[in-house]
Amino acid sequence: MVSSCRALYISEILSEISYQLKDDRKSLSRLARCCKAFSDPALDVLWRRMSFFSPFIPLLPPKVLTLWVEYQFSAESIASFQCPPIHDWKAFDAYARRVRILHSGASHFLAGVATIRADFNVFPFLRSMSMQLQEPIQPEIRLFPETLQTLEISGPAYINCKVSCIQTALAHAARDAPFLKHLHVEDYSYNSDRLDTPPLHFKHLRSVEISAFISSNVLKSLCCALSQSPVIELKIELPPASSIWDTPQSLFPCLERVEIHGTPALAEAFIANVSSPCIRSLTVRHSRGPARLADCSRLFSTIVNSCGASLQSLSLTISRSPVLHNHDGVAHDIMDALFPLMPSFEHLEELHLSLPSETQVDDYPAVEASGWPALRRVEFMAT
Q1: Per-residue pLDDT for 159 more than 50?
Q2: Which residues pair with 316 in a beta bridge?
Q3: 3-state DSSP call for residue 309?
Q4: Cα angle vertex 170, ends 208, 270, to 5°?
Q5: What is the C-alpha to C-alpha distance for residues 379 and 315, in angstroms, rounded to an integer?
Q6: 342: buried, middle or exposed (CB in 10 Å: 19+, 13-18, 0-12)?
Q7: Using one digit for the tens of pLDDT, what is the confidence trace for 307-331?
Q8: 250 CA to centre of own chain
């Protein structure tokens, strides 16, 4: 019995017990209240991942709470508000410092608290954050802590947005979160012509995902701004109405893995602007818009020219398109265009093809091992 009690003096054991209950919040709450030894480990797990700001509202200093209840942190009310002394924030900070993952939804509450406490990070040990920006971030506030490694941001959920919230958020992240590794941008700002953001020097940025709500001009500007970072993995959705890419600078010189969602024509134009000599995995997924055979042929040629010497995995999905009528014939035409180029893929080990066809095409007669230098796996599917 004495030995069992001594085990509870080992903090790692208490933390592991609490972590095993991470999906049982009721038990964690009881554990946090049962004894002082379990309180901190259990609270760390309970508050590690937060999806709402509501639990923090009762923890605000009384004057700040009144400001939220009566004025919802309006710009006018905050402008003349005097921040309470640091000891009034003791309860709020005791829980905020436990948060590692924050899915905050709308950003207004967080931006309000950050504005009031201009010299402090609201969540100082945050590792992952997702939020929808409702207004541009003011220059003087610190919304992102330097511990942040994963950031997912989206713009306002309304069409007529004239100010790019994404632009100011990325500038803040580049300034305040130097160790950021993963970035997901999803903007709803249809009215923005372009981003004026200068090159963003995220020295540790490795993974970028950009979603399709962004206009083509904003998307080009964003890619140019992020291309100064050592990004090795990119997932990008190209808008169907996007103009053909023509950027003054080459894009993403360090890429190794690329996933493109868009038409073959847009994918070809994008790949032509990527300067990385070491792309090992390439995925092109077409789900809407035209997919002409001529576009597919140009796409294959560009892939060979851009990354034929380094590519190890190639995945191509072509959905049924209004311009395609004889789907079985088109599937074989696409393979007729691709397969003669296979000897140029010196290191290609995996090939995945999903093509518009009424029947499976795995019996295609042109598949001969002698023409596929390093190929180990081939998959055909009908879309």
Answers
A1: no
A2: 284, 353
A3: coil
A4: 40
A5: 9
A6: buried
A7: 999 999 999 998 876 555 555 567 7
A8: 22
